[in-house]
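We emphasize that the prediction below concerns an isolated chain of 347 residues; any contacts that depend on oligomerization or on bound cofactors are therefore not represented. The input was used exactly as deposited, without trimming of termini.
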Amino acid sequence: MYKSNMTPVIIAIMLSIVILPVSGQSNSPEITVNDGRLTSINLESGETYSDSWLIKENEWYSVQMDCQSCTGTVKFNGTEIDSSSSSLNGMVSSDGIIELNIESSISEEVGLSIIQYVKESFDSSRPAPNQPVQTISGVICYDINECINNSRGNLASIPDGEFTNQSFITGVIESGQSEYFAIDVSKGDTLELSLAHSTSDIYVEVYFQNQTDEILLPNSISSPSKLSVNQAVAPHYWHFDGDGRAVIKVESQSLNTLWALQSTIYESQEMTVLPDNSYLEVYGHNRNTVVLDVSEAKRLSLKSPYSETEISTYQLMNGNWVESNSFTSTSNVATNLYVYPNVSAVK
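Result of the prediction step, given as a token string:
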């Protein structure tokens, strides 16, 4: 029903998206935005950065800072409720406005990871396979070309916006227990999760459920302590060979752990037909099937930047697919495939 610990599938490398940090406005601290999210500010000595946002009753906020001599303060409806040089986390008891101010006694860059609001709504017990539950509708990737930037050196999806955007799932573990949420999956889907924000230790694991059965999947995400601001954490992947739902368990041994997970569902890529070009790029997760027009070709050279990518090839002869070669790639080592006579396509 599932597979995990998958080998990424890449043939060649494509540059698809350019990330441009955004500079600040005039008379304000310079800011840096990556993938639509504020990740740092540049403060001059004595300068103050300010931001504000609406928040509702019983919602939480979390501001993580990485600096040498900065101080952050949080005001709620004009009254200061929190102050720290590293971490500002709390819950409000009524609707209102959060005001964040950060200043420094020296000129420095301050790394930031901010969850503006989190509403605790996840269940503390895992649902039974046949139990109806509300599922999360997150980001679904229909075309991997639109979701990744391979020039970054990985196959991770690229989020867009702050932690309140649908690219992320956020929560808070108030009592040092576990909480669960579910995501619908279909046969052939691949789930990507990566830890983006955590105020304390955290452990994440994934179950697969259909109408009758449940199984704990291999592979997990963990951090023994608070996640460093903007720390790069490698994503984890789970592939599903049947319809059902992924039930994600988030656990912490600490009270009031606020967290954010980046989540993407990659839909199954059944088959892609590629033109007869001299240079082609194919990449994806778990499995990808492509058909190439080789009516004018005599040889194909296949190369992957990853080791242990399993490649099987078939050649179309007289209307039938005939297996021609299967091999496991060695990183950046090309393997030649020679086209049989009267073959018009290779799969």
